[in-house]
Design a protein that fits this description.
Layout lengths: L2 H14 L1 H8 L4 E7 L1 E2 L12 E3 L1 H14 L1 E2 L5 H10 L9 E9 L2 H13 L5 E4 L1 H6 L4 H11 L4 E3 L17 E3 L6 H12 L6 H12 L16 H9 L3 E4 L12 H19 L5 E3 L10 H9 L4 E3 L6 E2 H5 L11 E2 L6 H9 L1 H4 L3
Parallel strand pairs: 1-5, 1-13, 2-3, 4-5, 5-6, 6-9, 10-11
Antiparallel strand pairs: 1-12, 7-8
Amino acid sequence: MPINKRKILLRGLKATGGLRLLESTSAWSGLLVLNYHRIGTVGDSLFDRALWSASQETFDRQVRLLARSCEVVGLDELPDVVRGLESGRRSLASQDRFAMITFDDGYLDNFEQAFPVLKSNGVSGVFFVTTGFVDETPLAWWDEISWMVRSSRCESIRCESIRCESIDASVWSGGRVVIDRPDCDVAIRSLLQHYYGLDASRTVEFLDFLAEATGAGRAPRSLSDGLWMNWDQVRQMRAEGMSFGAHTVTHPVLARLSPEQQSFEICESKLRLERELGEPITALSYPVGRRDAFDQRTQTALSHHGIEWAFSYYGGFLTRDLARRRQVDRLDIPRVAVESDTSSADFRSYVALPQVFSRH
């Protein structure tokens, strides 16, 4: 169902009380995987505000709802869950409604804000860590793009004034991006979309271009202090029941890399986690995660390096019917994004009727 029709349907359900009825009567079987990035209050941050999925209070409400409605599982249980769905056998205990709570990147608030909520509710979360962020603590490229735009005093970013082969003026109206103050969200989203499509060899050039075009310069390294979890925190979370998977070393769009570069990003992130946690790592989530963010070369590299499960980020959920027909792509497990504009009704609809509302 197209997104605008889903929105209309959801508004109708809210207005008529149908959402509450749907929650009490809806029947579905499968695995619903939700994806978060950051937990907390965004405030006036100069970083990418879209990465804050929920406040800690909202996240707690979401976890409690999910735990009442489904059996929340981690990576350790995933193989048994999928095999059970494929077998066609039903479990009376869970009614075969499974959910997974996942996080990408490795922000410190995952430890400080999300981890306590998961523990207090007695459920496991799955954390896909960009290992280079933990080791080197850089500022992520999406946060730097946001910082440059929000720090700029310019009214727009003009691409014709600075020579940069990474810029295709035809994708911007009049060869420029207007900085839509005060929030700047439209400009930031436009620039991030452009970055997603770049060949990996041109991403640094593009960031340097933005530094000059915005007048902000490249972000100071000190801005990333205290931004990421450390390995002691990762080990503590694992010891207390959380699951971990790889999210590459530097968070590139994998499909924009050569096969050799993709192999490096996958293998090194997996090995780094294995060294720190002392256990096999068999799962990865794709950076960006759109349909065009990974390809057959990516999945070949995953299989070669022992990754058995990979998670995308373009919506959908794993239904029992799909599993029973043996059509589960273990290297493309769908996830539903929980983002800054996900309302309470949106979240309730995901859980009540994912076969309709989980599609992006």
